[in-house]
Amino acid sequence: MLQPVAVANKTLSDYTHIVGRELIAEIRELAEPLQGQRVVHVSATAFGGGVSEILYTLVPLMRDVGLDCEWHVIYGREEFFTATKLMHNALQGSPIDLDSEQWATWLRYNEINAHELSEGWDVCLIHDPQPAALCRLAREKANGWIWRCHIDLSTPNPDTLAQLLPYLQDYSDSLFHMSEYVPQGIDGHVHVVPPAIDPLTPKNMALLPEDAAYVCGQFGIDVDRPLICQVSRFDPWKDPLGVIDAYRAVKAERPDVQLALVGSMASDDPEGWNFYNATVAHADGDPDIHILNNFNNVGAIEVNAFQSHSDVVIQKSTREGFGLTVTEAIWKARPFIGGDVGGIPLQIEDGITGFLVSSPDECASRSIEILRDPELGRALGRHGKEHVRKHFLTPRYLRDYLKIFNELNRS
């Protein structure tokens, strides 16, 4: 069998005071016809990225409303994840496609995982390209198949997409963060469903300011000086080198500023350590640049503390499927600056809930503006938090899935 992931228990009613009774009642009503349905989520990894963070909440909430829901992780070795990371980059616009041997590796591991997938599911939800061939290879093991895309497919490498598309066309339904991500040639029902964060997890729960400051201080941050922070994978699309360039421009005017680059190293991202090392090299020994990851004991509470304590939170991506770290930062009512790409503008009304930028210089300019005017930062934070509460919390995400499951039952 594929590796099942153990998840904690969660109760939908615990979210009522945040999202309101009306949404909770709607979810219960949508779940009523789905009682006992067997649903499995299949993903590439159980930690280190937005997909796994979503599933650690979504799966137990699906169970709480009456679905028999599980989460399974596929098997893969380094050769497979090297190929799929290349595929991920190409689907987000990199000119380098997989060679024939890498495509064969991808398919071979999909065949292994298709054989190991258990049977009898009402719905099989496949997350991202890594296991995308499972529908074709194991169709008899589930009544309904859904492919969930978490990446930006707006400008894919055409050769890579052409190779992958026949496997995607096997799915009756597919989900994308934004309509702009839906590639030509996708068959079946297409749903636009932005992701969401869990406001009750340790990463997103409210921290007292003194507690956030204490945690940051443990990592060498001077809590009495301004802090700029980016939380993301060490990945060229997240542009940590550009963030360092922006920080240096800010530091020319505000010598007291510090920068924290906080990331998580994922098991399905073999490039991560190479780019982490490139980021360290670009920092060039600056003692005010703090580059941290989960191997430095940075977990959910620590990420929360860095986001909550920061004077400016940045996500200066050059490609971004959605950007849950954006949602997290805004939920903490922090002034936010993000790249004007992918799903970030869906969350940011420029000048109201944060700022959108397209270069390190613009990022630096907006950072200086916020540091000069703390009231501006507080206003951006207040408006941003309310926007997230209305649109990007997990109960809304659960509701959208239940609607799709009901449609599948009627088709």
Protein described:
The chain has 411 residues and is α/β, with parallel strands linked by helices. Helix 4 (78-91) crosses helix 5. It is built from 16 helices and 13 strands. Strand 8 (227-231), helix 9 and strand 9 (258-263) form a beta-alpha-beta unit. The chain has helices at 16-19, 21-31, 50-64, 78-91, 100-116, 134-137, 158-168, 209-218, 240-253, 272-283, 300-309, 324-331, 344-347, 360-372, 374-391, 394-410, and strands at 3-4, 38-43, 68-73, 121-127, 142-148, 173-176, 189-192, 227-231, 258-263, 289-293, 312-315, 336-339, 355-357. The longest helix is centred in the last third of the chain and has 18 residues, at 374-391. It has a 7-stranded mixed beta sheet with strand order 1-3-2-4-5-6-7, covered by helices on one side. A 6-stranded parallel beta sheet has the order 10-9-8-11-12-13, sandwiched between helices. The mean pLDDT is 95.
Brief descriptors of the model:
single chain, 411 residues, alpha/beta, seven-stranded mixed beta sheet, six-stranded parallel beta sheet, globular
